[in-house]
Amino acid sequence: MNKSVFLICSLLFIHSFAQKYDDKDFLGYINYIQISSVNVRFNPLLFEGILDREQDWYAKNKIKKITYLFNEKFSQSTSYAQDGSIAESSFNSGSKNIISKNKNEVRTVEYNNGKENFVSVKKMSSDGKLLSMKNQYTSSKKDSTVTRFYYENAKIVNKEQLFNNKLQRKSEFKYDKNLLTKLVGTDYVMQVQPNQTHEAENVNYKYDDAGNCILIERSHYFGVLKNRHIFTYNNQNKLIKEVYTLDQGEGSKTNEGTIEYDYNANNKIIKIIEKNQQKNSHTEVLYSKNDKVDTVTITCESCYSTYFPINFYPGKMTNVYNFKYDDRGNLTEIINTVNGELKSRTQYLIEYY
């Protein structure tokens, strides 16, 4: 996804079923495993997204339609049924998704400029678990990709992706006391070197006695590169520090740094400080009277941040996000300025039943 879309758009269409932070004071996160139905995420998120909520939230808040504008240009619109499920989505590319349900089957048809282009069919269990997903382009009806999900004790334990009934990729998940402890991903399609296996990634998770994740170690790119994240919490189980090492391995430039978090008396994040190889960013957060995030200000010289979408900025920068809400407290606008100049304006036009 284009990083110019900034914070909110990274939250689109991601669902979590494993270890997850439910705190509503969180600002963004690193999505360590981008696998449907399992998502371990940690970095604090300050505001609640509009397009990534659970179905019951849209039903409870009587959301009928949300139109997303970026720099005052149409980007996407999503219409919801009264039960909160998505009924239709339209995009600036000219494509449109129409979703229909029949018992435990959810069918999504994508149209491109009025012509059917793609069909996705999800099979659900009676208790709402995703069992399989079949994707097929209209122009190639002989070819299809099927993803199957297998569960034990309500937890996903295996995921298989097949193309024309031939296994392409597999993911295996292990748990201890209902917490995800290991993920192994195998890719049978990619060509590997003679000394490499088809194990695309191997991720291990460790937790403290309170269930907070304190360590993530990930081997990826078929064992060539390694990542490590160490997390520290305060006595209220709030994340206060992360130490990370990214892409450590032969032929790669290792990226090391720390992120520290500071909270106010109401356990709201007020400061985020990241340091990385002599580059750093300092973030301050201000709240409105109703505890909604009002302003996020990021200042730095020779900036670097894994947390915010600024990457490396060669000069001094003041990056400001201002937030607006409707009378129901739902986010409607984010205005971003860099060094006093307007960078972007994100709007969410919400229609209610």
Structure description:
This protein is mainly beta. 3% of the residues lie in helices and 56% in strands. It is built from 2 helices and 22 strands. The protein has a 22-stranded antiparallel barrel. Strand 2 and strand 3 form a beta hairpin. The chain is globular, with a radius of gyration of 21 Å. The chain starts with 5 loop residues before the first helix and ends with a strand. The N terminus is likely disordered.
Lay out the secondary structure.
Blueprint: H1 6-9, H2 55-60, E1 63-70, E2 73-80, E3 86-91, E4 95-102, E5 105-112, E6 115-124, E7 130-137, E8 145-152, E9 155-163, E10 166-176, E11 179-187, E12 199-207, E13 213-220, E14 225-233, E15 239-248, E16 255-263, E17 269-276, E18 279-287, E19 293-303, E20 313-325, E21 331-338, E22 341-352
| Number of helices in the DSSP assignment | 2
Query: Strand content of the residues, in percent?
Result: over 45%
In angstroms, what separates the terminal alpha carbons? 31 Å
The biggest beta sheet is recorded as: 22 strands, antiparallel, barrel
Topology, number of strands:
22
Could you tell me the radius of gyration in angstroms?
A: 21 Å
Q: Identify low-pLDDT runs.
A: 1-40
The structural class is mainly beta
Mean pLDDT: 81
Provide the helix percentage. under 10%
Order of helices and strands: HHEEEEEEEEEEEEEEEEEEEEEE
The dominant shape is globular
